[in-house]
Structure formats: structure tokens, C-alpha cells
Design goal:
Blueprint: H1 2-29, E1 46-52, H2 56-68, E2 73-76, E3 104-105, E4 122-123, H3 145-154, H4 162-172, E5 180-181, H5 188-199, E6 205-209, E7 211-212, E8 214-215, E9 218-219, H6 222-227, E10 236-239, E11 242-250, E12 256-265, E13 271-284, H7 287-297, E14 300-301, H8 303-308, E15 315-316, E16 328-335, H9 345-349, H10 351-360, E17 370-376, E18 383-388, H11 395-402, H12 406-412, E19 423-430, E20 438-440, E21 451-453, H13 460-477, H14 480-483, E22 488-490, H15 504-509, H16 514-524, E23 526-527, E24 546-547, E25 550-555, H17 570-595
Parallel strand pairs: 1-2, 1-13, 2-10, 13-25, 14-15
Antiparallel strand pairs: 3-4, 5-7, 6-17, 8-9, 11-12, 12-13, 16-19, 16-22, 16-23, 17-18, 18-19, 20-21, 24-25
The structure holds flavin-adenine dinucleotide.
């Protein structure tokens, strides 16, 4: 019997592998071509606005400037267009470690990642039009007002309360008809979670079924929402597959960005370099890892650090690359004794799943599998619990994108002898982690990866907060609303944690010790891929996102976030880009009327 299921599992794995390989081939053939590409003879040109990076921030900003500005706009992006694969929601993880992923690894972590190879986290980042918005899991989050009110207080950023940001969040949010919300009847798990709301009314918990940036079964990212409609505008040029390597400052009459050095690889992989002049503003949208990388490689950063790297100083800006923050996820596998259905190899190979996707964009292929989320914003430990409805999973793919050592992976996910194993992954995280890391350089070459140190769990409060999250997650799983699913929490039996548990009573009473839970998070906690803060508002930037000391450089990406976002950050970053555009367009107008 066991062998029979083993065979099903292996055959299932091979079929999924073949299908994904085939999809990838077709998709790379179907890569969208990019219009309005800057021609070689135009490369001496100067542009009013030069935007570096076509991710969430860059695509949103470009769209508004191309639509409303009188100036010329150049969007420079290191990658090319994404293929069709990026649009099929369930297959999105197959893009990781591919050509549209920068595939960064963290530096070895001191306080976490002990169950990962070399104690390094995989840190995927999108490369190409859409950036990480085309690689992400498409989950939408409305924003949490107090996050912005806290910024307001943090550095006296009076422009940044929720009263200021709310309207931009609403504008950046896709229309309901351009989103997909997991319906209540999607599975028994979604029904049970809906019911649990009334069981936990005494708790300050907010339940939500997932809402995705998915339209008609396909990813609907900032590319479709913002960038595509302006791609052919005459004031816009695009420069794909081009890496910005250096920012040149000039000091007359005041310090300003005058040009950027761009590198392109030719057919023989030789680097061609040329400069683009910046007439009005240079806007950095290269993301939380690469914006501080580019600034530091250009000599804008901490003078002592740059001197050690022998990078000539252009501006001492001591906090560039500091304050990096990210959520850390603790996954736990919960098996279910009933058919929900959840994502497993049988569901995926079922002709009905394929039919539902092709006919209406629904079913397991039409979303990423995250069914819902519970958030508690109560201080001092605001936390989130995410329900990823997956049973017998594609182990090889998951292991590869998470960098798990085999033993840690096996402790987390028990070997399934059943291709139709039902279950879900319960993900607990702290919404306002206090640990802070950094982005540094090995040297000044932009083709070398930056040194990324998220420094997860370096602050003790994050441990307490994650424990609070796990204990609440257990309460939910063992509630009477979920009892009919016959859930069973697989407390990982990690050898390194065996002094602390799990003991028999942990399975019986579901109250493992704090020491065991801490040991778990320090071994198997994974990045949630929400980095931010590395060129923060109020310390590196002024309240309108301009680099302190060089007012014609603006940063418009996740680097600006002074504190973590209490949820998924993509829409917040698009909203911030809209705000930046409003300031830029306003100053353009004011300048125009002064000239008249
Ligand atoms: C796997 C994954 C899953 C996620 N899931 C979700 C989710 O479900 N919901 C959510 O809200 N958020 C999610 N996120 C986070 C969200 O996608 C990011 O926070 C957001 O896209 C970051 O936007 P950005 O503008 O800061 O940077 P990015 O979107 O990363 O854009 C940076 C762009 O700059 C380009 N670039 C970098 N350096 C240079 C250079 N020197 N020259 C030229 N171009 C350059 C890059 O190629 C890239 O296109 C996820 C992220 C990942 C990676």
C-alpha cells in the first residue's frame, strides 16, 4: 500500500515537473515585447526624469509621470519583460531562481536560519518589468492606519498620517472587479475560518479571506494596472536589460544628481557603458536591497564604511543601508482528516482543476493557495496568522526556494505517503518586528550582489511576539469551529530542539514550552520577502522622499518605510509612488507658472 502511494507521489512529481517545464518553455517563447525602447542613437539624450527600476514603486510612478508630466521620462530596468508564467497564479514559485529573479541570499544569520543551508535565507527579488510585483504572491492588503500615524510620530513626519495616506491607498488599490477574493465556500477550511470569527469575538482579531491582485485567473500586477496603459506614450522611453551602475553628483550651484552611468551587455557578453543626463530628478526605485547598494556604490553613504571599501565619497549619509526590516514567518504543518479540498498532487492533477482554470480562471491554479489571514494589532505584540491551504506539496520545489537543510525540512513536513494528503501550513509572524539589519557592499561593482543581513530575531521582543502568534494560531486550530476538519499539528521534531520538545504532552495538550518555540523559530523561520527601511523616511530622506543633501534624488520603493508594514506591503508601495508623483507634478506646475 505504502509503495503504491510512493509511486503515485513520484509519478505526480514527474508530471508536475514536466508540465511546469513545458509551461516555462511556452512562456519564454511568449515573452511580451517592450515598446518605446531607447534606441542607441538616443543614448546621449538627457531626460527630465530618470527612474531606476520598474518594480512596484517604479512602474506606478512612471505611469503617472508619463500620463501627466510635460517632461520626458526614462525608465531604466535591469531585467526584461516577464513571461506568461508569471501570470499563472499557482505557478509563481517556479519563477524563483529563474531569469526574472535576482536570487539573493542573505549573509549567514547569527540569530536564526539554523535549519537552513549555511544559515542563509533565500531572498528572491523580481527582475524585469513589474519587479517583485511580478514575482510576488499577489496578496492584497488594505493598509493599517496606525502604521502611518506611527511614522508621523517617529520623526515628526507630519505629512505621513493615515489621513494623508488613506486616499492614496484607495487610489492604488485595484478595482474589486480586478481582484479575486477567496469565496467562503472555497473549501471546508475557509468555511471553518469564517465560522471561527464568531467564536473569537472576545479577541481583537481581524479575520479576512485572501484578496488577490488577480483578474480572470491571471496576475494583475502594477504592470497591467499602471504601466501597460502608458507604454506607448511619446514622452516615455524604456531601457530594459540595463543596469544603473553609478550616480554622478555635481556641486554647482548646489549638490544635485547630474547623470547616471548605465551598463548594457552586448551579444558577446561585453559590457557597454554610457551616461544619461538627469535634467530634473533622479528617482531610485531599485528596491530595499538595491537602492542602498546603488547609493553606496556611488559614494553616497557612511564615510567610514565607504573609505574601507575605497569608494570615493560624494556625500556622507550615515544611515544609507541601515534599518533594514522584514517579517519572519514560522511555518507549521497541520494535516486534516477530511477532504477540504486543499492543494495536493491529486487536486492539481485532476482534470477538473485544469478545466476550472481554463474555463473561468478559478480553482487551485487561479490563486496562490493562501486562503485567509488573521491579524491582531494589539500592542505590545501585534501578530499575523496566515493559512496556506496545502497538503502533499511539491517537496523539491519548496526545499529549493527555502534553502532548508534536508533534516529541518523533513522535521517540518512529515513524509507524505499519500498524494492526496489534506492539510494546511499555519504561518505565524510578528507584524512589527523590532530587529534591524543592513545592506552593505562587498565592493563597488554593481554586478556583485549586495551583502544583505536581515538580522532576524536579534531583538528579544520579536521572539515573545512570535510566541504569542503561535499560541493564538494553536487556539484557532484547536477551536470548535475547526474541530470538524480533524486537524493535527505536526510539531517539528528537530534534533537541535529535542531538549525542549516536542514531548508527548505537547501533542496532547498543544502547549509546547516557550524554549521549544523559540528554538523552532531560530531554526525554521523563513523570510516573508517584505524587506524595507534601508533608506528610510526621516533619517535618509526628507518627508517628501528626497535624499537629504541632494534634493533632486528621490527614493520611491520599499526602502523608504521607516517601520514595517503590518501586512503585505505591495499596495502601500504603489500608494507611496502615487504620493511622490503628486509632489513632483505639483512642483512642475509651480515652476511652470513661475516661468510664465
Ligand atoms: C516571493 C515574494 C512574494 C511576495 N508576496 C507578496 C504579496 O503576496 N503581497 C504583497 O503585498 N507583497 C508581496 N511581496 C513583497 C512585494 O512584492 C514587494 O515589497 C514590492 O514589490 C517591492 O517593490 P519595490 O518597488 O520596492 O521593489 P521591486 O518591485 O523589487 O523593484 C525593483 C526593481 O528595480 C530593478 N533594479 C534593481 N537594481 C537596478 C539597477 N541598478 N538598475 C536598473 N534596475 C534595477 C529590479 O530589477 C526590479 O525590477 C512579495 C515579494 C516576493 C519577492
Amino acid at each position: 500500500m505504502g509503495q503504491h502511494f510512493q509511486k503515485i507521489l513520484i509519478v505526480g512529481g514527474i508530471v508536475i515537473g514536466l508540465l511546469s517545464g513545458l509551461a516555462m518553455m511556452v512562456c519564454s517563447l511568449l515573452k511580451e515585447s517592450i515598446p518605446n525602447v531607447l534606441a542607441p542613437e538616443e543614448r546621449q539624450f538627457a531626460f527630465d526624469y530618470v527612474i531606476v527600476g520598474a518594480g512596484t514603486g517604479g512602474s506606478t510612478l512612471t505611469s503617472l509621470l508619463a500620463k501627466h508630466s510635460n517632461g520626458s521620462v526614462l525608465l531604466i530596468e535591469a531585467g526584461s519583460a516577464f513571461g506568461l508564467l508569471s501570470r499563472i497564479p499557482l505557478l509563481t514559485t517556479f519563477q524563483q531562481k529563474g531569469i526574472n529573479d535576482w536570487s539573493f541570499l542573505s549573509v549567514p544569520q547569527r540569530h536564526s536560519a539554523r535549519g537552513l543551508i549555511e544559515q542563509r535565507q533565500c531572498l528572491p527579488r523580481g527582475k524585469g518589468l513589474g519587479g517583485s510585483a511580478n514575482l510576488n504572491y499577489m496578496l492584497h492588503f488594505d493598509g493599517h492606519g496606525p502604521d502611518f500615524d506611527a511614522w508621523h510620530q517617529l520623526h515628526n513626519l507630519s505629512d505621513w498620517s493615515w489621513a494623508h495616506m488613506g486616499p492614496f491607498m484607495a487610489a492604488a488599490t485595484a478595482k474589486p472587479c480586478d481582484m479575486y477574493e477567496i469565496p467562503r465556500g472555497y473549501s471546508k477550511l475557509t468555511e471553518a475560518l469564517d465560522d471561527a470569527q464568531s467564536e473569537f469575538t472576545h479577541k481583537p482579531w481581524v479575520f479576512r479571506r485572501s484578496r488577490y491582485n488577480i483578474k480572470n485567473g491571471l496576475r494583475h500586477s502594477v504592470v497591467q494596472q499602471f504601466l501597460q496603459p502608458v507604454l506607448k506614450h511619446s514622452n516615455l522611453r524604456l531601457l530594459p536589460e540595463a543596469l544603473v551602475k553609478r550616480i554622478q553628483l555635481s556641486s554647482s550651484p548646489t549638490l544635485r544628481a547630474s547623470s547616471v552611468l548605465v551598463g548594457l551587455k552586448d551579444a558577446d557578453n561585453r559590457e557597454l557603458e554610457f551616461s544619461i543626463e538627469v535634467r530634473r530628478e533622479l528617482i531610485l526605485c531599485a528596491g530595499a536591497y538595491q537602492t542602498p547598494q546603488l547609493l553606496q556604490a556611488s559614494g553616497i553613504g557612511n564615510s567610514t564604511t565607504l573609505a574601507k571599501l575605497r569608494i570615493p565619497l560624494q556625500l556622507h549619509s550615515p544611515l544609507v543601508g541601515r534599518n533594514l526590516h522584514d517579517h519572519l514567518n514560522l511555518p507549521l504543518f497541520v494535516s486534516m482528516g477530511v477532504v477540504a479540498p486543499s492543494l495536493n498532487q491529486r487536486t492539481l492533477l485532476s482534470p477538473m482543476s485544469v478545466f476550472n482554470f481554463l474555463s473561468s480562471g478559478t480553482g487551485p491554479f487561479g490563486n496562490f493557495g493562501v486562503l485567509g489571514h488573521v491579524a491582531s494589532h494589539e500592542e505590545p505584540s501585534p501578530f499575523g496568522i496566515t493559512f496556506f491551504g496545502a497538503g502533499a506539496i511539491d517537496e523539491a520545489a519548496l526545499m529549493s526556494i527555502s534553502n532548508f537543510k534536508a533534516a529541518a525540512f523533513r522535521a517540518l513536513f512529515p513524509r507524505h505517503h499519500n498524494a492526496s494528503q489534506e492539510g494546511f501550513v499555519l504561518i505565524s509572524s510578528c507584524l512589527q518586528p523590532k530587529s534591524r539589519g543592513s545592506v552593505g557592499l562587498l565592493n563597488k561593482h554593481m554586478r556583485r550582489n549586495p551583502l544583505i543581513d536581515p538580522n532576524y530575531l536579534s531583538h528579544e521582543d520579536d521572539v515573545a511576539c512570535t510566541i504569542a502568534a503561535i499560541r493564538s494560531a494553536v487556539k484557532l486550530v484547536t477551536s470548535s469551529s475547526l474541530a470538524q476538519l480533524r486537524p493535527f499539528i505536526h510539531w517539528p521534531k528537530l534534533q537541535e530542539c529535542s531538549n525542549f520538545g516536542p514531548f508527548e504532552r505537547d501533542f496532547r495538550e498543544q502547549r509546547p514550552s516557550d524554549e521549544y518555540l523559540e528554538c523552532l523559530m531560530r531554526h525554521i523561520g523563513l523570510s516573508s520577502h517584505h524587506p524595507g527601511g534601508s533608506c528610510a523616511l526621516g533619517t535618509v530622506l526628507d518627508s517628501q522622499l528626497r535624499l537629504l543633501g541632494v534634493p533632486n534624488i528621490r527614493v520611491v520603493d520599499a526602502s523608504v518605510l521607516p517601520r514595517p508594514i503590518s501586512g503585505n506591503p505591495n499596495t502601500v508601495i504603489a500608494a507611496i509612488a502615487m504620493r511622490a508623483a503628486s509632489w513632483m507634478l505639483k512642483s512642475e506646475l509651480q515652476e511652470g507658472s513661475r516661468r510664465q
